[in-house]
Every structure is written in structure tokens, then in C-alpha cells.
Amino acid sequence: MDGNNMGKCPVMHGGNTVVENTAIGWWPKALNLDILHQNDTKTNPLGPDFNYRDALKKLDVDTLKKDLTALMTDSQDWWPADWGHYGGLMIRLAWHAAGSYRLGDGRGGAGTGNIRFAPLNSWPDNASLDKARRLLWPIKKKYGNALSWADLIILSGTVAYESMGLKTFGFGYGRADIWGPEIDINWGNDEELMAPSDMRTEDVSNPDTMYDPLAASHMGLIYVNPEGVNGNPDPAMTAKYVRTTFARMAMNDEETAALTVGGHTVGKCHGIDADIGPAPQGAPIAEAGFGWHNPKFAGTANTAHTSGLEGAWTTNPTQWDNGYLKLLFGYEWEVTKSRAGAWQWEPIDIAEEDKVPDATDPSIKHNPIMTDADMAMKVDPVYREICERFHKDPAYLSETFARAWFKLTHRDMGPKANYFGPDVPAEDLIWQDPIPAGATEYDVDAVKAKIADSGLSLTDMVNTAWDSARTFRGSDKRGGANGARIRLAPQKDWEGNEPARLARVLGVLESIAADTGASVADVIVLAGNVGIEKAAKAAGYDITVPFAPGRGDATDDMTDADSFDVLEPKADGFRNWLKHDFVVSPEEMLLDRAQLMGLTAPEMTALIGGMRVMGTNHGDTKHGVFTDNVGALTTDFFVNLTDMANVWQPVGENAYELRDRKSGDVKWTATSADLVFGSNSILRAYAEVYAQDDSKEKFVHDFVSAWTKVMNADRFDLAA
Description:
Elements (H helix, E strand, L loop, with lengths): L22 H4 L25 H5 L4 H12 L14 H12 L30 H15 L5 H15 L71 H13 L5 H11 L4 E2 L41 E2 L10 H8 L2 E5 L5 E5 L8 E2 L7 E2 L5 H8 L1 H12 L1 H17 L33 H9 L5 H12 L29 H18 L3 H19 L22 H4 L6 E2 L4 E2 L7 H11 L4 H14 L21 H6 L4 E7 L2 E6 L5 E5 L1 H8 L1 H11 L4 H16 L4 H4 L1
Antiparallel strand pairs: 1-2, 3-4, 5-6, 7-8, 9-10, 10-11
Helix pairs in contact: 3-5, 3-6, 4-6, 7-10, 8-11, 8-12, 10-11, 11-12, 13-15, 13-16, 14-16, 15-16, 19-22, 19-23, 21-22
């Protein structure tokens, strides 16, 4: 990941969404909490008790794949297939669904079926993929709730490859659908779709200066502009952008080259000189959800429009073969324009037998084409060397591509525990963040007793458990306490984990794990629970924090350390810490962290209040610790925050004092991540609930519930 953008925006600006004629539109700088409530269970028509994993058990996988294979060559009059085969279209659908994933924050990707909704359903790069989804509708209708759109979209591309001759690596079901747009994803602050790359880079000549966590060169594209950077053909420059964008999707050079070659081995681009209508999100109601109306579409494949480029990459676009590399290396290429006016490359003096049959009339032949990104595979020395190996060894290409395709389409599903079905590969892949099974047959109470007698402080126990678990990202289901990777590189050295304190605490907990047969991961979580039970008791409540044993301990060999760098917290409002100042506010970064962990606004509020009074701030700072009874799980944070005897005064950048209104004496200090719970009207409403005299016990139970949710967020085995 690029280190030059650390001070840039890692999350969405300005409260995430501005809507005119609403409170958000009138006051766009107000904190918008909607990201914590998006895709609420009330929006799910299947109801809160629906479990997709249970529904999948009813799925007839063999019949489904036969139905999809038959669909590939069942050309429809309303949207005819190229050469009578929908394979290229379905591969593009699956590819573009998966291709929005980015490693930086784990968001995007195919795991939720989000390509059905704006903005993705209306991006220029996804032109006419609305037709692909409608072609799949009869199959979705047939299998109903036993098959999600998210699974069906990816499966359609995988079956398409199989139908054209590729031996795929496998497939895992398990992607549950969402039922509305994902508003938490920062797709960029570009002023318009396809705005120049200048809008998202500090230096257009250096794609590594593209603002994190963005991965595409333009708003509205999955990767790079096929015509060249900012629409200017230059394969050498495009190669730089290809390398950066694919790296930000967790792909290395070999995987990138394989995906480029294999992705363009089949199918074609479509471009026609016509005034194409608006995308689905802006189309008239009579279009029935379709977009990109093409007035020159004549019901034939060769009059369709998608990207504006026109042509196929290979001589046999419905067959998995080595034709792409044969043509790329076999001819010299010159830049030209498609009939729609888009820049593309065509071969010079191509032999007639290497030309491509027309998608509708095979008696007509056309030149094959290459995009600027394709030419990058020939021009860039690293990509060229890889592609030359592929050219000499087609079996090597097939194997490498099959694995890369599997990674592309499954990366955001998290560990294999989330995979379901008969085609899940047996092999454990390092990018799946494998974790061995942990012990369950040990004496939990005995472990807790040893922790309590260990001499560790309450903050030692709670902070270590929190720091271990807070890395979880619901976006791609990575991170979390399971695996105890907090004791491995790079996590053990992260500034936010206070390495010296962490090493001391882990030394104690690892010894307890060795003595009791429990995993270190379980002992870390149990230590946090012991600390909370101690804090609750200090507040007058005897509780037992729920615990489920079975976490395993990952090893260095199971950990792709480089890919874990992106999980490093740059801020943690729960522990009142910023690594450095950012363009966005601390409270917005708090929302981003809470959303990634799957928390609601009330859960976030309860956790903040409890963490503050227990004194768990990073570096033991006193900001927001609005209590004289530190270490007790009381409602003091909320009581003093809402007490009108106190007045707030700014005293520096993100620094405030709470003073006695009459005397002027300083009582406490705070940051905006504290005071937002008293200033934002929604968060204040939650804070007032806990500040009430009758909410002391409720607060303890709510805090414990939210804490347990965080500790178990990555326990996919519990939900299986």
C-alpha cells in the first residue's frame, strides 16, 4: 500500500451522503449516522429470522449448474448472445461485481450482490450488465431464496468459463444479499463520472499517489480506462495504473497478468455510434429498470453497445485457448478508433485466418482488438516476461488464471468457514487467512482464575482483548480476535497496539494458555471478559460475560503479513486515539471503525461510555474519562456529559475542557470523539438514555452485549 497518502481521506467525507431538502442537505457538515443503520433487518423482505446458510442446504447444485450451462447458449431475441454464447457477458458481470473490491478497507466486491444497486448498477463500466442480470432472472426465480443474487452472479461467470473449456479451481456459495445501496463506500470525491484521474491522484504520472483506499483510476470504472490514462493511449503509463489498481485489490503481477489474459480470452467489446440513453438509475420508468437505451440497436449482437470499444481479442471468442497471446505477440499493433470513437489497438497486416467472425454474421470477419491495458502486457517488461511464460505453457496459464479467478471472486468472503457447497477446494490458501481449530475441552473457569490472579491490570486485560478484536472488518470478513494474530508481525508492532505494553501482557497470557490447554486467542478474549466482570462488580453488578471457546492460534506461515498492513488502525475513537491528524474528523473515523465492526449507533454509544470509565484510552490519556471512579462500569460518562453544570471549551486542535459552569474550574478534558455524544442530536438521545437514573443496570447489560458482539464478530463457526 502507498505510504504517501497516510494523511488523506480513508473514509467518506462530509457525513457520507448529502441529500437536498432534508436535514442532511440543509446541514451537510452534520455527522450522518446512516452508515451504522444501512441494510437494517427491517429492509430485508426475507425477515430477521432468515438464514441463508440454512437455505443453501436445500439448493440442488448439480441441476443449477446444468441450468446455467444451458442458459449460455440459449440466445434471447430481446438481447441476443454474441456468437450464440452468453459466456463473455456473464464473465463480465461476475468480474465487474467482484472487481469493485479494494484491499484498503475491504469494501466493494461481489459478496453482497451490490451491483444490483446504485451507484454500481449505473457506472459507465457496467453498461448493459443490466441485461445480463435479467437473463439470469428465470434461474433466480426458479431457485428462489436458496440462491442469492450474489452467489448466482459469480457462479454464472464461473460456469461460463467451464462451458468454454476452462477447468476452474472451485466455487464457494455463501454470499448473502443486501437489499439496498451500500452508503458506507467512499468511491471517491470526483465531481462527475469518468472525471480525469487528476481528481483522485496527487500526481497523474504516479498512480501510487491515488488517494487511499481507492483502487480504480476513474469514478465509474472497476480498474483503469481501457483507452489509456485520461483517455490517452500510452501502454507504458497504463501498465503503471494496472499494477497499482490490481495491487490495491491484493493481486500480484502474475495474478494481474493472468486475469488480464484470461479475462480477454473470451467475449468482446461493443461500441456503436449512437446517442446512448441514461444509465438505469436515471432512466425513464418505462424502461423497466433497464438503462443505456440504444436507438440503433437492431436486435442483433453486432448492434449492441457497452464500453464504446468494438471487437474481440481472440479469433475464437467462445473458446478457452491461448489465442489472446498468439495474437498479442504475433503481430504489431497500431492505435485506432472504434466506430463509436473510442481508442483501441488493432493488428497490422493480420492474416485472414486470424480475424474474428462477426458476432451475428460469421461470414463477416473483423480485426481483433486490444485495449491499452492489453498492450501494457506486451510493453511492460515484467508483465511481458510473465505473459511469455504463459504463451509457452498454456497449461500454466490455465492453472494460474483459474486460481486468480477464484481469488478475485472469493476474496471478500473471508475465511473458508464462510464457504458452502460441494465445489469448495480442499486446499487452504494464505489469502483466506487460515486459522486452525482451537481447543474447546478445557476448564474456562480455571483459566479465568489464573488471569484474575496474574497481576495484570483491568486496562491491560481489556485493552489487549479490544486491540485484538477491533481489526475485524465486516466488509471482507478479515481480522478479529480469532487466530491471535495480534502476537504476530505486523500487528505486534503497530503503534495503536502499544507494542511494549502488548508484549508484556502477551507474555503473561501465553503462559496461562500453555498451562491450561486453551488457545492464546481464547485467553486474550477471556482476559478482556475478566476485566469487564471486575469493572461491573466495582459498579455493583455481578455478571458473567458470555464466552464461546474454540478460537485457534494462527502462525506466521499462515499469515500473509503484507496483506495485514491495511488492517492497521490509524485511529480508534473507542480508545480515544489518532495516529496523526486526518482530513476527516475523529468522529467520522469513529463511525467508519464502528461500521466495519458491524456495530449499530446504540452499540457504539454503549461501548464508548464503558471504555471511557474503565480508563482504556491509548497511552492512558484522560480525555473523555468523565468519572472519579475509574475502573467501574458506571454511567458516569453520560451523566457528566449531559450535566448542565458543565460547560465545554475548545483549547486547541481537537482538544476541549469541561469546566464547572460557576467556578470555571477544569473538571475533565475531552476530544471531539467524546463530545459528539453530547452535541449530535441522535447520539445525545442515546447518551441521555444511559444518563437516566434508571439505566445503570441496563447500561451494563448493553455494554456486555456489544462487547461480546465485537469479540465474536469473526467466529463464523458459531453461525454455521
